[in-house]
Amino acid sequence: MIIVKIGGSVFSDKKGEPENFDHETVRSIAREIAKFYPREDFIIVHGGGSFGHHYAKKYGIREGLPEDWDTANFRRIGFTETHQAMLRANANFIKAFIREGLPAFSVSTSSVFITENGEVVYGDLEIIERLLELRFIPVLFGDVSIDLAKGIDILSGDQIITYLAKMLEPEKVIFLMDVDGIYDGKPGEGGLIQNLPKGDIEALLERLHCTSAGTDVTGGICNKLREAKKIAEHSEVWFVNGKVPGRLGGAIRGDGFGTRINIGI
Amino acid sequence: MIIVKIGGSVFSDKKGEPENFDHETVRSIAREIAKFYPREDFIIVHGGGSFGHHYAKKYGIREGLPEDWDTANFRRIGFTETHQAMLRANANFIKAFIREGLPAFSVSTSSVFITENGEVVYGDLEIIERLLELRFIPVLFGDVSIDLAKGIDILSGDQIITYLAKMLEPEKVIFLMDVDGIYDGKPGEGGLIQNLPKGDIEALLERLHCTSAGTDVTGGICNKLREAKKIAEHSEVWFVNGKVPGRLGGAIRGDGFGTRINIGI
């Protein structure tokens, strides 16, 4: 089984109009997956892009539910608005996958997972596992979450993947990004790292100044690397450019262009 | 806690255009609930109306997943199309409730429940219970389901309610219909039954010729009465007209016009 994460910046321009969606790119991603399905099983997880972040920020979802009733109810409304925006992004994915004959099925992240300070602490995977057995392609997404510490929070797509990788032990996890992979420095400046031994991630995190706890709420490169380090305990990890046709297929086959972290090395 | 079922015929004309939605009626329902929230906790469950049934029928979802790959994949696509149609109906509800200041939160039924021949055999209510604790109004809906016997099936709103009533023991379950309640005969012909002792339901089922196993997939009056009989073990049950403003409020207060089944009598 292969888990594919479609980053928000791959299908959407966060700085563009609200809820803009790059249909062409997503269609091309669906086409690549269609070449391997049903020989391979897939789980898709997508980010928020220009859909969820706007609401999450506007309503201060990450600050949790306060005591004051009016502020709390404002946030509750924001919590539901954020989820509805994510469902609209998700509907675009489902449509694109169906068009390519793929039985992609929407699983509402917030109906399944509970977090504690944004990290999954509980998630019943019974339905996702049965969907896979029945040869569906479950599609999850970054979403709001019930949070044990704060009442409510945001659950990022990357966090979902770390949890799924731990529980389901996929053969491979592929992160689609809007750059070619992980760079030794700023993207475009440092060189692209094509083979990243798991043991080198810690040193890379230091070189990239990812030392303090991640403040990048959307899951920037520091968070991605930290999660990748955890995932590499269970599964091979790839970072490839989701905007360039063929790169996803290369990672699925195993001979693609991008950054590869071998399992357990 | 009060569970309100909004029947498909209340918010939608099943014989009308695909995906027609009676915004005015739903707005009026949201307004009545807003008079009691947050004093009362609510769970809302809505039916399919002109949204889900069309796809469920077209793709033969209730027939399950066959061996043949092509037929099975046609049904898988139908399964996901049906869910997406129900999410569109659900989005209309969420919007109407938010407009009245109610923090209604969409819970995807198919992400939570597993059925066996259309009856719930598994459903993790952790998230629904926590949503209630945090003063959200969870909104569920009739949906497709992973089914232990058939692979896939339909889970009706009424079945969800039977399960929720058993597990959560609400104070009251209110079914909104497009008629005034349960009649002793055909609606409009027999007289409206205002007080229905639980012990009389069996005899009424016989008088209404509901003897054989229900063939009405959409949950007609026979199915409703059978479910009501089970629910009345745990909770007071009301059947009221959801199209007439004030009737829902009457049932919530307990002095309304419609059919009332007292708990355990």
TrEMBL record, chains A, B:
Classification via SUPFAM superfamilies: Carbamate kinase-like (SSF53633)
Binding site for substrate: G48, H53, G157
EC number: 2.7.4.26
Span of domain Aspartate/glutamate/uridylate kinase: 1-236
Reaction(s) catalysed by this chain's protein: isopentenyl phosphate + ATP = isopentenyl diphosphate + ADP
Keywords from the named record: ATP-binding, Isoprene biosynthesis, Kinase, Nucleotide-binding, Transferase
Top-level EC class as recorded in UniProt: transferase
GO process annotations (BP): terpenoid biosynthetic process
Any Pfam family matching the protein: AA_kinase
Matching InterPro entries: AceGlu_kinase-like_sf (IPR036393), Asp/Glu/Uridylate_kinase (IPR001048), Fosfomycin_R_FomA-type (IPR024192)
CDD domains reported for this sequence: AAK_FomA-like
A single Gene Ontology CC term: cytosol
UniProt site (Transition state stabilizer): K14
Origin superkingdom: Archaea
Binding site for ATP: K5, I6, G7, G8, S9, G49, D178, G220, K224
GO terms of molecular function: ATP binding; isopentenyl phosphate kinase activity; kinase activity
Keyword Nucleotide-binding: yes
Key word Transferase present: yes
Similarity remark: Belongs to the isopentenyl phosphate kinase family.
PANTHER family for the chain: GLUTAMATE 5-KINASE (PTHR43654), ISOPENTENYL PHOSPHATE KINASE (PTHR43654:SF1)
Role summary: Catalyzes the formation of isopentenyl diphosphate (IPP), the building block of all isoprenoids.
Name of the protein in its database record: Isopentenyl phosphate kinase
Organism: Thermococcus thioreducens
